[in-house]
Design brief:
globular, about 110 residues, mainly beta
């Protein structure tokens, strides 16, 4: 049974940083591309970043490129999203996603506000 558990969200001031984690279990983590998505209130869920199985292939949405960094630790079955220079428009629920299994985590709330 695939399980994805996100953590690390919270309230942060504009310009601040947070690191999200997604702990995966129930599948062979190292064999799957991993992604982060986010959904703001009243908006569609949108792509944030994706990372290939060995971390060599990475893509970001233009809105976060240069501010967010996706990484993974295959030994810990965990994918991370380091977020810096946060803006109020980054406020969303952030979700971990396994494209190859069409599986979502439960999400973690990130709120950027002064």
């Amino acid at each position: 049974q695939v399980q994805l558990v996100e953590s690390g969200g919270g309230l942060v001031q504009p310009g601040g940083s947070l690191r999200l984690s997604c702990a995966a279990s129930g599948f062979s983590f190292s064999g799957y591309r991993m992604s982060w998505y986010r959904q703001a209130p009243g908006k569609e869920r949108e792509f944030v970043a994706t990372i290939g199985t060995d971390g060599a292939i990475i893509h970001y949405d233009a809105s976060v490129k240069g501010r967010f960094t996706i990484s993974r630790d295959n030994g810990k079955n965990t994918v991370y999203l380091q977020m810096t220079s946060l803006k109020p428009e980054d406020t969303s629920v952030y979700y971990c996603f396994v494209p190859g299994l069409v599986s979502w985590g439960q999400g973690t709330q990130v709120t950027v506000s002064s």
